[in-house]
Specification:
This protein has 206 residues and is mostly helical. The chain contains 9 helices and no strands.
């Protein structure tokens, strides 16, 4: 039973869904740039990001599975992760490139760019150890909101506590499924938090 729950949690909080969740969380905030966005544009942006950062990459993973280029969607073997991570990075960067000319969503696009870089860093680390991509994504989400709270001088504690809680639940699920060691889980989370926090605090306004 616990294993089934862990699988559901891993699916619900899959790394590819984190950009979509990030936008939903931002839409729920009172940040000034969110309040200025027209409602129709919010729906368009959400649908676009969901399609390019989750739906299309997920379809590509299924095609790789059908072509037997990966043995499973979990990609237990580190060698199997290289091509999927490159594909994800390509879709993430494509999303950033297509949206970079819209100044009203600079913060969202900066998050997507940072996520792209995190995918490449994870790919490099993958040659050494099977880092938890789930935790990299959740750590990146936490680092983003910590950074936004700091640079915008906004109280985002409600979102931050929620992100920490979900991240902890996801970490438990990954460990329960024995998908990663504790070191790989902690490494992924710390990488995501520290990279995105540094990116927003020291790079966004420069």
């Amino acid at each position: 039973m616990e294993t089934k729950i862990a699988k559901v949690i891993s699916a619900l909080f899959h790394p590819l869904l984190i950009p979509t969740y990030a936008i939903l969380l931002l839409y729920s905030s009172n940040l000034y740039f969110v309040l200025l966005l027209p409602v129709k544009y919010k729906y368009f942006l959400l649908g676009f990001v969901f399609t390019t950062t989750f739906l299309l990459p997920a379809i590509m993973m299924l095609l790789l599975l059908k072509a037997k280029m990966i043995s499973s969607l979990q990609m237990e073997n580190r060698n199997e992760r290289v091509l999927p991570l490159l594909i994800v990075a390509g879709f993430f960067f494509g999303t950033f490139f297509l949206l970079k000319s819209i100044p009203q969503i600079a913060i969202i696009n900066f998050f997507i760019l940072g996520s792209t870089v995190l995918v490449f860093i994870s790919l490099i680390i993958n040659y050494v150890t099977k880092i938890s991509i789930h935790m990299v994504a959740h750590g990146g989400l936490l680092g983003t909101f910590l950074g936004l709270g700091y640079i915008l001088n906004q109280d985002l504690n409600f979102f931050i506590y929620g992100i920490i809680l979900i991240g902890g639940i996801t970490a438990f699920a990954r460990l329960k499924l024995k998908a990663h060691s504790q070191f790989q889980v902690y490494l992924g989370y710390l990488l995501g938090v520290l990279f995105m926090l540094n990116l927003f605090v020291f790079k966004f306004w420069t």
